[in-house]
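I hope you will forgive my troubling you with a question about protein structure. Could you please explain, in whatever detail you think fit, how the structure tokens follow from the sequence? Thank you for your consideration; the sequence and its tokens are set out here.
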Amino acid sequence: MKNIGLIGAGTMGEPMGVALLRAGFALRVCAHRSREAVERLVAQGATEKADPAGVGAACDALILMVPDAPQAEEALFGSRGAAASLRPGSYVIIMATIAPAAARSLHGRLAQRQIALLDAPVSGGPARAATADLAIMVGAEDDAYAECQAVLSALGHPIHVGGPGLGETVKLANQIIISSVMLADVEALVFAKKAGADIEKLRGVIANATGANYVLDRWLPQFWFNGGEHEGGFALDLLRKDLRAAIEAAQGMNVPMAVSKAALSRFDGASAQGLGSKDYSAVAQPYERAAGVKVV
């Protein structure tokens, strides 16, 4: 498999496109939201097509890195969508986080055209996309995963977690965890700062204690402790979207989600204060204002 299509060259999609070019794949792209990102990819060797249909006609596997299921639907089945031009026997890899039910629906519709769908959402943010170090959770039939494994491995560390829809399920499980871990970290740090603790000494202690976690150790130094602006990273509004999808899926399975619902209310409140486009660590700002302290 040589020819790869990419729709969605945004904050995550652009560095993923660069990684594919670096790995030797021929990349076909079209503008989705960011014209500038497409131009940068073309400057590095990608070929631009006019629309998703043009990309689909020129690729063996099409990667979608769009915000949610409606954008995936449009890219595939819109008036100039890629589904009509993709060849039978080709592949669609949805690397965005969408509802598992939506992934299974798209899988069924594409299967009617003899096109295999893999739901392969990622975790790691733009920094790990740039170094091809993403965690990739793949829901797919065994043969489809085997055919696309080399493509996915050029972007990070794929793990085949089951059939269609289960990649999205595992990703939503990750989002359930990080939303509450972020809030726990924020509450602990604001609490400690208000009491007069040295935050760096506190982090050093917790790194070797039972409260150690990836968000505190590796994420917050990049997107909060580097100046307190919460720039880059993973947008708070995208986490809200993922949490809503997880809660809706859980309701359909009669799974209680009390903690996630409480977390969503906190992120909703932060978004209402204009923080939705910032990294989801920006949920700290309402806490800091309420406590009258700045952690960093």
Observations:
- The chain has 13 helices and nine strands.
